[in-house]
Amino acid sequence: MTTFTRGFRGRRRGEDDRLPPGQYLTEDFPVLSAGPTPHVPLDRWEFTIDTEAGQVHRWTWQELTALPYEEPAVDIHCVTSWSKLGTSWRGVSLDVLFEDVETTADYALVHSYGGYTTNLPLDDLLDGKAWIAYRYEGEELAASHGGPARLLVPHLYFWKSAKWVRGIRLLTEDWPGFWETAGYHNYGDPWREQRYADD
Amino acid sequence: MQADHLDGNALAGPLAEIFTADVSAAVSRCASCGLTGPVASLRVYDRAPGLVARCPGCEEVVLRLVRSPDAAWLDLRGAVSLRIPLSGTNPSAVLSDEGGRSGAER
Ligand SMILES: [Zn+2]
């Protein structure tokens, strides 16, 4: 084995530690979409959290972007097997948005402009694990990548990070979303390789 | 701008694994708006974890197909019906069916 190969492998090993099973690294950012890209004017954009008791919490674009933001740098993992390391975002933590939300619900159904849905346990949105992201790599989030704003929940496969996010419904019973009703795993942990419903 | 979808002929191959008939030659009725037309005219979004075929009239989902290593998941909730032409024993029907297939990848 040559010195060059060892050095190369050493560097790759560091990256591989961050690569879940069955994933490969990509440098670009593939665009995945189950439908046409919705274009929502910012003056009509809103984000809502609906509780199981029927209370609606609502933010306009101005209100959302005036909230304290974070700039997470995270690895993202798509169920179609690509992973991208160290992506940088700007967004509002769901902890901030849930500050005044009273709920005993265990489940969240995220819904998007264009009709997409995805479900996850409410706990997976809280404690610094999820954001409503509106900037990517220092720029406005492009519509093709879910702009003006998308959910970012990087510890689950990226289909859970709903593009064009419009709101979250809190539910006392789990309600499977778009891909979760079509053969994909209900939870989608990339480290346990939970791709399909039977995994 | 590059189109973000394909036409319904893209379904012919993946569905041939499930159906013996060529489903891209079938006529579907959209459960959302009632538009009736050939499956080949649906808009197929394939840059996704599965195939999503949408109605050209209302953009609602008509058909979804996910292929896992050991199963196919087919969702036809968005289609009221599929009219699948079958040639039976009529030689003229077989001939016209050949013409319908020429556009599909086989
Ligand atoms: Zn329709």
Automatic annotation (TrEMBL), chain A:
One Pfam family cited in the UniProt record for this chain: Oxidored_molyb
Signal peptide: none
Gene3D superfamilies in UniProt: Oxidoreductase, molybdopterin-binding domain
Domain annotation Oxidoreductase molybdopterin-binding: ranges: 35-179
SUPFAM superfamilies reported for this sequence: Oxidoreductase molybdopterin-binding domain (SSF56524)
Region Disordered, residue ranges: 1-23
InterPro entries: OxRdtase_Mopterin-bd_dom, OxRdtase_Mopterin-bd_sf
Protein name per its UniProtKB record: Molybdopterin-binding protein
Annotated organism of origin: Microbispora siamensis
Automatic annotation (TrEMBL), chain B:
Residue ranges, annotated region (Disordered): 85-106
Pfam assignment, any one: DUF6510
Cross-referenced InterPro entries: DUF6510 (IPR045423)
Top-level taxon of origin: Bacteria
Protein name: Uncharacterized protein
Species for this entry: Microbispora siamensis
Taxonomic lineage: Bacteria, Bacillati, Actinomycetota, Actinomycetes, Streptosporangiales
